[in-house]
Amino acid sequence: MKTILCYGDSNTWGFDPKTGWRYPMDVRWPSVMRKELGAEYWVVEEGLCGRTTVWDDPIEGDRNGKKHLASNLESHCPLDLVTIMLGTNDLKTRFSLSAHDIARGAAVLVRMVQGAVYRAKDAPPKVLLIAPPVVAEKCNTYEAWLNSFDKSSKFGSYYAAVAKECGCGFLDAGQVVKSSQVDGVHLDAGEHAKLGLAVTNKVREMLGC
Description:
209 residues; alpha/beta; five-stranded parallel β-sheet; 7 helices; 5 strands; globular
């Protein structure tokens, strides 16, 4: 059985913008992928609401993706592939980050996975870097998310450059799904289905299945 770790934030966790709670398991995009791939694959959903790439959050606390990644890699090893979709929370005004710097934070995580070997005979997992969806334009008017639409619109190009630099797989979620008009940040149920299928296709391509 091949094991895939999906490392992300609330859009990997499955936050429902309409209810403020979590989608049922069969709706969330990692579970859609699990169903599509079949019984020979185990998909681990490691999403955390508010998770950043590499930044400490002074308000929400304990959301730094860099600090959590190593322990997750070890607890779920051996891993065949890790998907990383982080960067949306880095857009928050309090971090004052450019799209370029957010993508560089994602690069740190990719390198961590590529260097993760827990037994001498193990190869590091393959990495699929996913550029987060573009947030809705309405987010530009939110105090906590000023200019986030403009910044997230650049994710595709910056993340693609990181993937090329690191030699890992790449998927631009912004070309597949649209953020909900309810809150501008999260995905409606139908978008989870689209993303799950798109990631499935990339995983099959990368793992040769």
